[in-house]
Amino acid sequence: MSELLDIDDLHLEFDTYDGVVKVLAGVNLKMRRGDVLGLVGETGCGKSMTALSVPRLIPMPPGRITAGRVTFDGEDILSKSESEMETFRARHVGMIFQDPVTNLNPLFTIREQLVDAVLYQRQGGQKTPGRWRGFLPSVKQMRKEAHERAVELIRLTGIPDGDKRIYDYPHQFSGGMRQRVLIAMALAGDPDLLIADEPTTALDVTIQAQILRLIRSLVAQLGLTVLLITHNLGVVARSCERVAVMYAGRVVEDSPVRDLFHNPKHPYTRGLMAAVPQKDVNRGGLHGIPGIIPNLINPPPGCRFNPRCEHVMGICRESVPPAIEVGAQHSASCFLYGQDA
Amino acid sequence: MNHLLEVRDLRKFFPVHGGLLNRKVADFRAVDGVSFALQEGKTLGLVGESGSGKTTIGKCILRLMEPSAGQIFYDGGDITHLKQRDLRRLRSEIQMIYQAPAASLNGRMTVGQIIGEPLWIHERLKGDAARERVLELMNVVGLKDEHYYRYPHEFSGGQQQRIGIARALAVQPRLIVLDEPTSALDVSVQAQILNLLQDLQDQFDLTYLFISHDLGVVRYMCDEVALLYLGKIVEVAATEVIFEDPKHPYTQALISAIPEPDPDMRGGEIIIRGDLSHAFPQRGCPFAPRCHAEKLATCESVPPPLLEVEGAHLVACHLHPPLSAAEPA
Counting C-beta atoms within 10 Å of the first and last residue's C-beta, which end of chain B has fewer, N or C? Predict the structure, then answer.
């Protein structure tokens, strides 16, 4: 089966006053239709940038893609024009973000914003007829259908009394409910891919459980493909089928979820697991990873994890480890598993 | 038993203004009758979701906020109504570490000045003597000597939190209120800070009041846990007891909702409906509108008192009869 999304050796840089920040240095990621992939990593590892490169939402300049390809459903994304991208975003990709407050306009009701989203996506990202033209029968019909779709979406995301609450303003909704509204908006155009960037980080744990369950039920109902970005390994364990672990601009390990948690291979992944307070860890049993995330203006040569790695070898400081097969569909970019590939 | 800190029936209400003349129309009950005690050298976890009143309790204990009612005892003495002059002495005994390390450090002061300021205020220490103490403190929390003249923005989040910890330790406190000390940090750094806090506790015989919403962290750090819901304690017990045998339906739901990093544990969670809302009527159990457990007639009408159901295990729920009322086995 061919891939829905194929990110191949993506390099991304940002120009800053301090120098060129090498944000992504050869990211490889493949997703099939129906995949639920977790992209995990700590602050600044490039997980959001990787995801944003798919709908091409990275500001350029200062951003610059220096190498690599992004292919979506057989189409080359990076060579599209801006107006083709508008259509592409409207038809194929839905996004939800961490902070549900800043992503809703406080001056418009949920209904207005949802109807806008539906119309935008129906029009394939092209200009939608303004409300002032509502007297035209064709526009009237279009807006009526959009309203019905909006109510349907609101029901789909499990907001109680959705057909009434749709007339409320964002401030009348709690954090969890706002996140449901954003999910409804992202789904308005039946996207092939849903990118969820830390969707539950701002929410309480009981609400987080509700939202994760909603995403999983949508995957089952609609056959969505989801790219879930998170820093929380627990969220990944609970919701994803496959995991890619990122460190300092590269994917260091890519594996089915069970394999990753029971048999982590890359020293960084192992370090990350040992740092999470788990059930049977007693006082003093938690291990942080020594050192800090490298400065990406002058990243360490070779493997970017080498200054913090306890298994570091001479070769780690010289060349970049390739992705090495360490199990069924399980690869790790580490020289511990072979010198060549 | 020696309680370093005891809180009795603490309440903090905030006025809600409204109406034509913007008069006070209601009270927002942020903390509504909370009692607990903390033994010297131990760690008590205060756990709750946002809006449950956990930070307000911490601020009331430091008297950074005046409680509306109730009493706070520190080392046997009532500190609820201490005068300003006596408060200063108290504050060298009780210190606080904040959630956002960047926001709690003055960006125009160097690390040396930040850690040295409490030494001047409380001990009139300055010059070489102060410098020596500051360097010693920096060493204790894992900062290097060359950091002395740097500014907070030059540090990562974890390092900034170390500065905040050193500042709190400067006056040799006995009790530290930790308000979500690691929730702004990445997990590998969080582990470093948690381990540092444990080492410091052993080294200086500190007592911690650990405020957090992360039950995983609380399980790792605390000896005893108190769960808050809408300004009331719903359950208190030793950490192992809370996690092995939670009684209150809210505690059960919260524990089952921790995303454990183990894919085999998927699917067991109890999902509770709705969200935390102060808008519910105050009659009856505050958790009743979201409760997934069997409903009794009294749930909606009588607020459940916090009572002992087993040795040192207190629960506020009508489903669990108190120890004294239970049939002898």
Answer: C
